[in-house]
Inverse folding.
């Protein structure tokens, strides 16, 4: 009784004796703690070794950030990606992130993953013809002069190259078709449509070269290799599945194209058994009418029937602001929704309340498993709750969004808000080859340093990697996660031991 009273008096007098200043200070600190507890990765507990690794990583991160805070005019990540993409690769933090096991890459388009230098090398292959037109170029493999229309004349790439004045200069000019990186993006890429047009031109120019069956398979094999070298263990790849051709004049349809991917993956996994394979998301162009979508769905079902373990699901691609809204295909998509899993691109836009923004409503109502981009999601409080409730992962591609002009300064990317509220996020890279980024390391680095809070640490990185497996459709998920844990522990040990 006495003790209770004494205790009571003590508590009251303490409270009373607290100054207004202390109360405010307490509350402020409480706010910080509450927000830290809400952040993506908050549920992870770091081991002793991970805590040591965290110190190393946070020391590097804070140094870079604090320097940027003092000298914002030279803070790399507020500039255009083209200006810092090579420089950051030299930073110690980048090298750690490159070595870090990153789980899976879940949002990537098949013909946009490798560098322009890789694509340039393909032009050295035999039987490649070229037709140079005013600002464009057509490429085609053939065993004699192509019959396809050409505004000038078809010639063998080999002849064009070696009859040029300067082969190096010829290749430098050719390389420009295989990248959207330029010296003066602020002047040239004045709005989203300009940069998208250049971006789409890349796919048009390379399309007929890549869809030569031997190149198609080699490109995919080498993509898996690059992905594996970036410390990724599994991939889900989106493809429009174009018809392929060979020199005998045979044309392969979309189902056969999917089969050629399946065969390539199987071959790759045989060569590299530490890689956990790849699945396909059939993602044809959205700039079409409803009856074409109906055809697409038919094709998707055929692939599913033939290769049920290989097809992850269905999506539609293309610039959403200019493309046909998902709503136009709602009937077709509703009919197929029990047969196919959806992984829709949606909300890859700066517009609010327009059709591209509202594609997110359709995607979620159609039961999409994940959303590609969801860049516009912060403007939709109800949808934000809904993706969390339903466990719909957001496939966020920060570099794609900056290069394709949705956001200029990385610090303003809406991902900051997704991370702060612990939405189900997976990081991906969309078409990293086209802007000369690594398969996933650049996106992780920029997110960690330029988008997430200064307080976000190793817990965030680990959670993002784990999420990529958790929200994937990988077979034997538990086994893959277990293998990830082993690699992660190895990575942490080596980081702590070497201090790199
Ligand atoms: C920009 O990146 C380079 C290479 O990592 C680094 O040396 C430099 O300090 C960075 N600048 C800032 C302000 O972070
Ligand atoms: C292109 O080919 C050259 C010569 O075979 C090779 O050294 C280089 O590594 C290749 N580049 C890429 C990006 O594959
Ligand atoms: Zn995409």
């Amino acid at each position: 009784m006495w003790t209770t009273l004494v205790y009571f008096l003590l508590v009251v007098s303490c409270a009373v004796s607290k100054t207004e200043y202390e109360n405010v200070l307490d509350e402020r600190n409480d706010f910080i703690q509450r927000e830290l507890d809400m952040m993506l990765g908050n549920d992870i507990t770091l081991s002793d070794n991970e805590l040591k690794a965290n110190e190393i990583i946070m020391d590097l991160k804070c140094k870079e950030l604090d320097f940027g805070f003092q000298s914002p005019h030279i803070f790399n990540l507020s500039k255009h990606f083209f200006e810092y993409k090579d420089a950051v690769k030299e930073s110690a933090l980048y090298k750690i992130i490159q070595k870090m096991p990153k789980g899976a890459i879940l949002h990537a388009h098949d013909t946009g993953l490798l560098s322009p230098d890789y694509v340039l090398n393909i032009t050295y292959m035999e039987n490649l013809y070229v037709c140079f037109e005013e600002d464009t170029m057509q490429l085609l493999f053939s065993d004699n002069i192509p019959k396809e229309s050409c505004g000038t004349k078809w010639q063998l790439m080999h002849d064009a190259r070696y009859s040029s004045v300067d082969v190096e200069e010829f290749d430098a000019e050719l390389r420009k078709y295989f990248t959207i990186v330029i010296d003066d993006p602020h002047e040239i890429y004045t709005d989203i449509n300009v940069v998208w047009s250049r971006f789409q031109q890349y796919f048009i120019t390379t399309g007929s070269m890549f869809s030569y069956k031997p190149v198609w398979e080699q490109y995919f094999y080498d993509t898996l290799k690059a992905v594996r070298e970036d410390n990724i263990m599994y991939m889900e790849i989106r493809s429009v599945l174009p018809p392929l051709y060979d020199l005998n004049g045979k044309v392969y349809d979309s189902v056969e194209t999917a089969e050629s991917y399946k065969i390539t993956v199987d071959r790759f996994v045989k060569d590299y058994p530490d890689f956990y394979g790849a699945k396909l998301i059939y993602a044809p162009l959205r700039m079409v009418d409803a009856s074409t979508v109906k055809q697409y769905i038919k094709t998707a079902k055929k692939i599913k029937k033939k290769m049920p373990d290989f097809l992850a699901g269905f999506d539609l691609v293309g610039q959403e602001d200019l493309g046909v809204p998902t709503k136009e295909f709602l009937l077709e998509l509703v009919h197929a929704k029990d047969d196919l899993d959806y992984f829709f691109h949606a909300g890859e836009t700066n517009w609010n309340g327009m059709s591209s923004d509202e594609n997110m409503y359709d995607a979620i109502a159609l039961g999409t498993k994940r959303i590609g981009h969801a860049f516009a999601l912060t403007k939709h409080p109800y949808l934000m709750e809904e993706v969390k409730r339903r466990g719909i992962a957001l496939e966020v591609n920060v570099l794609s969004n900056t290069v394709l002009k949705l956001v200029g300064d990385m610090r303003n990317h809406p991902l900051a808000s997704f991370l702060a509220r612990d939405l189900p996020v997976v990081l991906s890279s969309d078409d990293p080859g086209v802007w000369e980024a690594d398969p996933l390391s650049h996106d992780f680095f920029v997110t960690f340093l330029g988008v997430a809070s200064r307080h976000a640490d190793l817990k965030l990185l680990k959670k993002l990697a784990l999420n990529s497996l958790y929200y994937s459709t990988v077979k034997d998920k538990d086994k893959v996660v277990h293998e990830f844990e082993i690699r992660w522990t190895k990575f942490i040990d080596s980081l702590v031991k070497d201090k790199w």
